[in-house]
């Protein structure tokens, strides 16, 4: 077995073997999906590589790539387009964030069949617009009224989605009751004991948490599969029904929190968070313009989880569905602006650099080409690693290890 595969297996040990098998299957799809599922490799490799250019410290999401931006409904009921995954969030040099995002541009555009020079132009655009936003020193948000181009169309569609659309996709009617559908490939059946405990736990959370929705109770729950990198952690989906409004439902996502993949390789001291879930939601609140609806934490069976509403408006832009290079240009520009805005918004908070330092960083051009070179070279490494992964995957090495873990 290759060293690469040993690293993958070591990282995923301790997660649910039957779900990790689905993670490996997803990673085998293409080298961009492989990149999404191996955030830990990125930071392992970064720690061994020549150092990135010096940069200010900032609160970063840690796993920034082009499909970790999307729409969501804030707790003010408005729809936004913003960074939307904070599982790996930490305090780190902002170049960590920029290097991973820029590498994702090279990898995704190569996966889509675009010529290298077009990917390079997009990477340069991202870095340039990030720097320009820092120079303006003003964090912005993107919602339907302020969005442009494909993002505006995306948000307008999201803004017109409703709970009925979500129910239609995720539920079935059985004995005159609505339940979460097990025909959905993302839903898996739970054993009766776990299902009962989860139902009681969330009902208690609704009643006692200040973040919970009032006058709702759980009527159905399943194991939920979503994303790529986080597949293998415990994740549940709940259907809740209002106890005082007829035919009113909502869905909650409850996801186990793990240590950030960035943490073992950080050069700076981190805050002493109460637990990993508190780390995730507190950094998310700092970086986003408006926090997501029903964002909260809970502890279940000794593990901590992040709870948030599963919304009909929550979605990510799928780049493989964008065929127009000009559309992509606007989206990448918006992503650069939002990245810089998240750093400005959280600047000067408990260790992050002040706005003046971020402005000075945006004004400097010395770091920009060095960072793009690193990202481009790393993208080539990911493609090579993916070929090695596929060789080992086709040999059945991962299946055998997972079978051994399952028996244990």
Question: Can you characterise this structure?
Answer:
The chain is an alpha+beta fold and 408 residues long. The chain folds into two domains: 3-160 and 320-407, no CATH class; 163-310, no CATH class. The chain is built from 14 helices and 13 strands. It has helices spanning 3-12, 17-27, 31-36, 39-48, 94-111, 116-136, 149-159, 163-170, 192-208, 276-287, 325-345, 355-363, 366-394, 397-407, and strands spanning 57-60, 69-73, 79-83, 90-93, 171-174, 177-180, 187-188, 216-224, 235-242, 249-256, 296-300, 303-310, 315-316. It has a six-stranded antiparallel β-sheet. The chain has a three-stranded antiparallel β-sheet with strand order 3-2-13. The longest helix has 29 residues, at 366-394. The mean pLDDT is 93.
Class by SSE composition: alpha+beta
Number of strands: 13
Distance between the first and last residues' Cα: 21 Å
Main sheet makeup: 6 strands, antiparallel
- SSE succession: HHHHEEEEHHHHEEEHEEEHEEEHHHH
**Average pLDDT over all residues:** 93
Rg, please? Answer: 21 Å
Give start-end ranges of low-pLDDT stretches.
none
Strand content: 15-25%
State the strand order across the main sheet.
7-8-9-10-12-11
Shape by Cα distribution: globular
Instruction: Please bin the fraction of helical residues.
Output: 40-55%
Q: Helix count, per DSSP? A: 14
Q: How many domains is the backbone divided into?
A: 2
Pfam families: DUF2252
């Amino acid at each position: 077995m290759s060293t690469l595969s040993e690293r993958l297996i070591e990282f995923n040990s301790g997660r649910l073997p039957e779900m990790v098998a689905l993670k490996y299957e997803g990673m085998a799809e293409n080298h961009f999906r492989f990149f999404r599922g191996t955030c830990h490799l990125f930071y392992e490799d970064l720690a061994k590589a020549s150092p990135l250019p010096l940069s200010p410290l900032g609160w970063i999401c840690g796993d920034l790539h082009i499909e970790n931006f999307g729409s969501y409904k804030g707790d003010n009921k408005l729809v936004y387009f913003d960074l939307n995954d904070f599982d790996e969030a930490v305090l780190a040099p902002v170049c960590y964030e920029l290097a991973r995002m820029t590498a994702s541009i090279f990898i995704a555009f190569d996966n889509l069949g675009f010529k290298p020079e077009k990917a390079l132009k997009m990477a340069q655009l991202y870095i340039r617009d990030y720097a320009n936003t820092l120079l303006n020193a003003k964090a912005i948000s993107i919602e339907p009224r302020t969005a442009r181009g494909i993002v505006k169309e995306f948000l307008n569609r999201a803004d017109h989605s409703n709970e009925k659309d979500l129910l239609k996709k995720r539920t079935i009617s059985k004995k005159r009751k609505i339940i979460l559908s097990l025909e959905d490939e993302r839903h898996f059946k739970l054993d009766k004991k776990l299902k009962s405990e989860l139902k009681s736990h969330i009902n208690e959370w609704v009643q006692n948490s200040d973040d919970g929705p009032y006058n709702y109770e759980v009527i159905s729950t399943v194991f939920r599969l979503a994303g790529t990198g986080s597949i293998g952690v415990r994740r549940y989906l709940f259907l809740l029904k209002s106890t005082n409004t007829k035919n009113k439902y909502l869905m909650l996502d409850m996801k186990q929190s793990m240590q950030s993949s960035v943490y073992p390789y950080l050069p700076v001291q981190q805050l002493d968070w109460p637990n990993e879930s508190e780390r995730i939601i507190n950094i998310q609140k700092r970086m986003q313009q408006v926090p997501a609806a029903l964002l909260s934490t809970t502890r279940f069976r000794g593990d901590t989880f992040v709870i948030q509403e599963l919304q009909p408006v929550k979605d990510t832009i799928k780049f493989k569905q964008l065929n127009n290079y000009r559309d992509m240009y606007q989206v990448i520009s918006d992503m650069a602006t939002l990245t810089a805005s998240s750093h400005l918004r959280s600047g000067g908070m408990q260790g992050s650099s002040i706005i003046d330092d971020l402005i000075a960083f945006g004004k400097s051009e010395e770091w920009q080409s060095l960072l793009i070179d690193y990202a481009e070279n790393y993208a080539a490494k990911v493609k090579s690693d993916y070929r090695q992964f596929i060789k080992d995957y086709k040999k059945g090495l991962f299946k055998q290890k997972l079978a051994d873990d399952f028996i244990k």
